[in-house]
Every structure is written in structure tokens, then in C-alpha cells.
């Protein structure tokens, strides 16, 4: 959800300090900014042992009727069984998040593809 916040809110979050939870936690502000840009561009986020060792996740934004990201749909599993980089998993999570967004009244602009990011 951080990727879809206002730039000043992202900067305030970064300035507050990036706590390292595991060896994979992003603590370099430049790396985090690049990752957030990628999340906005691709429409999903993947985390592998960034918050907790042994846990992987994929998340996609859920938008409300105004187009604002109000929620996120996340699928979490143990790293030894869950592979979030699987294209099928990515597509299903994004599709489910899009369907929920539509039920909340969001519809992407006609010129965009169906990837609310």
C-alpha cells in the first residue's frame, strides 16, 4: 500500500527510518523508492522474507470508487511451498484485486488496460 501513497507520505515514511526485520528487508531509501516505482508500474508487489523469515507474499491494490487504493489483496505462504513469481499466481491475484475493485465501484479509464495500479 505504501507504493500508492502520496510522495510526501512516502518520504515521511522513509525519513522516519527503515527498520530491518530480516536480512532481506529493504533499508536503503534509493532501493525502496525504485521498488515502489516498480510496484506501481507492474500492479503488484512481491515480498520474499522481507518482513519475516520463511514467508513469501504477493499483493495487489484494491481501489475504491474514487480510484484511490483503499485496500490490498495479499496471498502469503511459506517460502518452501509458495512461489510468488509464478506468472499464474500473479495473474490470479491481480484479477481478484481488479474484481474486488469493480465491486467497490472502481472502473479503469477507457484508455487504460485493466490493471489498476
From TrEMBL:
This is IclR family transcriptional regulator. The lineage of its organism: Bacteria, Bacillati, Bacillota, Bacilli, Bacillales. One of its GO terms (biological process) is negative regulation of DNA-templated transcription. One of its GO terms (molecular function) is DNA binding. It comes from the Bacteria. Residues 1-106 form the IclR-ED domain. It comes from Geobacillus kaustophilus GBlys.
